[in-house]
């Protein structure tokens, strides 16, 4: 999907006050900063793309509860993700994670965390603060 088309879909969703957006399999290499305009978003699926990082603007999605980032090329999305305090479900299956930073423990509302098919070598003790 062309970047212009993605931006158009984001802008339309923002104007309509959408609570869910599906950008799964859109061949995105980057997420445009316009994503920050979706302040009412609760569910975001950006799986099956080729993202290597997330823009700072995603932190503006303070209502976001479900984030699917599976099957991308993310190595360290946590500086941004750790500020999404409303997250209850985070899917990072099939990325290139090597470690989880201590900031992961800040996501105290998480009830679902999928880390399968990554390259994790260690898990920080802070993850024990997450709900089971």
* Low-confidence residue ranges: none
What kind of sheet is the major sheet? 5 strands, parallel
What's the helical proportion of residues? 10-25%
- Compute the CA-based radius of gyration: 14 Å
**Considering the protein shown, what is the CATH homologous superfamily?**
Ribonuclease Inhibitor
Order of helices and strands: HEEEHEE
Assign the CATH architecture. Answer: Alpha-Beta Horseshoe
Q: How would you classify the helix and strand content by structural class?
A: little secondary structure
Can you describe what's shown?
Residues 20-91 form the Disease resistance R13L4/SHOC-2-like LRR domain. This is Leucine rich repeat-containing protein. Pfam families: LRR_1, LRR_14. Keywords: Leucine-rich repeat, Repeat. There is one protein chain. This protein has 132 residues and is low in regular secondary structure. 14% of the residues lie in helices and 11% in strands. It has helices at residues 3-16, 78-81; strands spanning 20-22, 43-45, 66-68, 89-91, 112-114. The protein starts with a helix and ends in an 18-residue tail after the last strand. The mean pLDDT is 92.
Summarize the structure.
With 132 residues, the protein is largely without helices or strands.
Name a few traits of the molecule.
repeat, globular, LRR_R13L4/SHOC2-like, Leucine-rich repeat, LRR (right-handed beta-alpha superhelix), 132 residues, 5-stranded parallel β-sheet, LRR_dom_sf, little secondary structure, leucine-rich repeat
